[in-house]
Amino acid sequence: MTTAGTYAPKPGAAPLSRMIAAQAVLETKMLLRNGEQLLLTVVIPTLLLVLFSSVDVVDTGEGEAVDFLAPGILALAVMSTAFTGQAIATGFERRYGVLKRLATSPLPRWGLMAAKTLSVLVTEILQVLLVTVIAFALGWSPHGNPLAVLLLLVLGTAAFSGLGLLMAGTLKAEATLAAANLVFLLLLVGGGVVVPLDKFPDTAQSLLGLLPISALSDGLRDVLQHGAGMPWGDLGILAAWGVVGLTAAARFFRWE
Fold it and tell me: ABC transmembrane type-2 domain spans which residues (predicted)?
């Protein structure tokens, strides 16, 4: 027996943690159901790893090609999800008014961004597992400190997420689509992913080395291929990009 005017169960918004988790699950399902996103985030990195490890297309220096390529492909997987895929998906959600409608829900805007970040991390875990399994099948022999690898991947995700959200929140959807794919291709070639940076002129090497994809791929390569310690220089570059990108995204992101 309840008192008149009361309801059981009591109506109201779900706990914030549950809302973020539910939105993250939804974001992950939508990403995994999108064929174009899967092509970008899973198929392309996998094909590049298999192709360049099996065919002598690029001189990767001494040792097995897969030992050079696997860290770069891991960096590419992070960029494809955290930057390219997230920028395109968020840009079109903004264009179609999805973000505007979600902003009126009990889920706060920062909670929506947190859910998107969790979705990116889940997708990256699946990517890393897939690339690692394929690389092992191709004869990969990684070395180094797992903590250093984890820090590089986390800071790389932060850096690329900030840049992706900044692009999606300031440009039109069509411009984001074109720009994100163009940047992906340019960084694939000039970011030390499949082509060593020492193949470029000295001046270009210095500039390219400051890019987040170069810092991530070189840092992973130093640890996993050469067994180096903590790559503080590369971690510093990624941290700087992360701070700049996320700060700018928070400042200039437009929800409509």
Answer: 32-256
Distance CA 51, CA 171 (A): 34
Q: In this structure, are residues 53 and 66 in contact, taking their beta carbons and an 8 Å threshold?
A: yes
pLDDT in tens, 195-212: 889 889 989 999 999 999
Number of domains in the chain: 1
Residue 3 lies in a domain: no
CA-closest candidate to residue 140, choices 231, 74, 199, 195: 74
Domain that holds residue 29: 16-52+61-252
- Residue 153 belongs to what H/E stretch? helix 146-170
Residue 197 contacts residue 210 (beta carbons within 8 Å): no
When pLDDT is averaged across residues 168-196 and rounded to a whole number, the result is 93
Q: Give the pLDDT mean for 161-188.
A: 94
Pairwise pLDDT comparison (250 vs 178), residue with the higher score? 178
Whole-model pTM over 0.70: yes
Task: Give a yes or no: residue 22 inside a domain.
Answer: yes
Q: Is residue 8 part of a domain?
A: no
Which pLDDT score, from 0 to 100, does residue 8 have? 61
Distance (Å, whole) CA 194 – CA 204: 16
Angle between helices 146-170 and 212-224 (to 10 degrees): 170
CA 164 and chain centroid, separation = 9
Q: How far apart are CA 108 and CA 161, in angstroms?
A: 19
Contacts of 212 (CB under 8 A, 6+ apart): 79, 156, 159, 160, 163, 237, 238, 241
Helical ranges in 34-145 per DSSP H:
35-38, 44-54, 65-79, 86-95, 98-103, 109-137
State the average pLDDT over residues 34-54: 84
